[in-house]
Amino acid sequence: MRDRRWPREIIERAKRLRKEEKSFHEISQEVGVAKSTLFTWIGAMERSEKFKNANNKERLKEIRPLAIKKNKEKYQKIALGLENKVKEEVKNITCNDSTKRAMLAMLYWAEGAKTEHDTLAFANTDPELLLLFITLLRDCYPLDETKFRVRVHLHDYHNEAVAKSFWSSLLNIPLERFGKTYWKQRSKEKTSRRNFGGICFIRYNSVYLRREVMHLAHFLQRRITGDIYVPVA
Predict the structure, then answer these.
(1) pLDDT in single tens digits along all 233 residues of the chain
(2) Strand bridging mode 148-154 / 182-183
(3) Same domain, 32 and 118
(4) What pTM was estimated for this model as a whole?
(5) CA 105 to chain centre
(6) Are 108 and 204 contained in the same domain?
(7) Are residue 38 and residue 102 in the same domain, yes or no?
(8) What does the H/E/C string look like for the chain?
(9) Number of folded domains that form the chain
(10) Which of 46, 62, 81 is the last residue of a domain?
(11) Which residue range(s) make up the domain with 16?
């Protein structure tokens, strides 16, 4: 048999080293025996939980980056598939006047001012959302551009001139229609997420236009959900 070529003390030494939780590689280096031969001697030896856990930790360190990479590739593939699916869906949507008015009404209902005597006002930090709102508003209604007013709310880390210039260019509203900047005080206890342009408030001075947009939103809601009375607490 192959084991008989090796002195008994070598085999016993290998077993002792295994009991001391040495790896096959370490034992092979110490006794000068190939790992394939060691396996015939000590492969069936039960390892301690400590040794198993150490091996498992090393194994996890090796496979975790591979698993993360594989999952990332998987989700990127799913995300790309969803993006392409939605792109095709949007191509089939007819953006006529009725569709745009419905979009504007729902958008305003979610983010706009709703008090009874307020004018039409919309505020957000997201430039794309603000651009969508004002584009829909201009497309859906004949407006008097001189009735637009803008006010920005900024933190101490913002550059006022840069922020105002950004919103003026994006919204196509002259700087002379911007009101006094409101500077928000940051709480020392509460950390706030930074943004580029602060909060931008767009106001169009027309109570009646706000009412028309809100009427449209409510009637659309009733058409979709039915005339269900929802009591307000």
Answers:
(1) 444 578 888 888 888 888 877 878 888 888 888 888 888 888 777 665 555 565 666 666 777 787 788 888 888 889 888 889 998 988 888 889 999 999 999 999 999 988 877 899 999 999 999 999 999 999 999 999 999 999 999 988 899 999 999 999 999 999 999 999 999 887 655 556 677 789 999 999 999 999 999 999 999 999 888 876 666 54
(2) parallel
(3) no
(4) 0.66
(5) 26
(6) yes
(7) no
(8) CHHHHCCHHHHHHHHHHHHCCCCHHHHHHHHCCCHHHHHHHHCCCCCCHHHHHHHHHHHHHHHHHHHHHHHHHHHHHHHHHHHHHHHHHHHCCCCCHHHHHHHHHHHHHHHECCCCCCCEEEEECCHHHHHHHHHHHHHHCCCCHHHEEEEEEECCCCCHHHHHHHHHHHHCCCHHHECCCEECCCCCCCCCCCCCCCEEEEEECCHHHHHHHHHHHHHHHHHHHCCCCCCCC
(9) 2
(10) 46
(11) 2-46
Q: What are phi and psi of 26, to 5 degrees?
A: -65, -40
Whether 104 maps to a domain, the answer reads yes
Report the CATH number that the domain containing residue 196 is assigned in CATH: 3.30.1330
Residues 205 and 124 in one domain: yes
